[in-house]
Amino acid sequence: MLRIVFLLLVLGNAGYYLWSHGYLAAMGLVPETQSEPQRLQEQIKPDALVLQPPAAAPAPSVEPARTESSEAPAVDDDTPAPRPDAATDTKPEARPEAKADDARPARDSKTAAKEPETCYQASGIEEAQADSIRRALAGKPRSDWELVANHQGGRWMVYMGKFPDAEFMDRKRGELRLMNIDFDRAGGSFEPGLSLGRFSTEEAAQRQLAAFARQGVRTARVVQERPDVTTYALRLPKATPTLRNEVAALAGKNLVPKALQACPK
Questions:
Q1: CATH code of 142's domain
Q2: Which of 155, 222, 237, 252 could hold 226 in an S-S bridge, CB 3.0 to 4.6 Å?
Q3: pTM value > 0.85
Q4: How far apart are CA 234 and CA 146, in angstroms?
Q5: Which residues, in sequence order, are CB contacts of 122 under 8 Å at separation 6+?
Q6: What is the domain range of residue 137?
Q7: pLDDT tens-digit readout, 252-264
Q8: Any domain includes 143
């Protein structure tokens, strides 16, 4: 089978060769001749080409040069000629932009030099110290400082004591418990003793003492635990570090040991 296929291929190639080369023309088997005469006519003939020189460009109009004599204005012989050194001494005008640039750093330096402002105060100043501070700060603007008064009213206490010893005080405690009367330690300079109640006015304390007397309490009395007190606070609402140091120096020992602290928020 392969031999037959091989022989057919050989015969086919041989026949194509004979047909393409015109050996079978006698049998009327001739390949078509491909010719395109119109393409030959359209071909460019290089021997007929002629190079043309470029067209001359129009010459630009030249303005006639003016002579120095025509440009220079007429000068009077009597007019003195300017001095050469006068031109060299002339200084250029200062630019406004340069002045603005110089002014800007000056403003920035002023802004940077401004100190921060903080509220400071010193509390617990007594009346005598407050008077001394007023005199010391009299030269400062009142908007820089102020003395704020803080009045604390007196306090009264229904008191039992002083007892001779702790055993006697324990016995009084037992008696008060039997009467259902509340009590606590008197504290401070009233020890050893017992407090049966503290009141903001003497009248209220006296009324309570009368009520205790009806219950059988005989040895209690009304005492003033704390007198009326007025203290002051030195306040610097918008103080710079410099102002704070100046006020502390002027007030001196009147602020000791009360130091200027930041205001509570």
A1: 3.30.70
A2: 155
A3: no
A4: 6
A5: 233, 234, 255, 258, 259, 260, 261
A6: 118-152+230-262
A7: 887 765 688 888 8
A8: yes
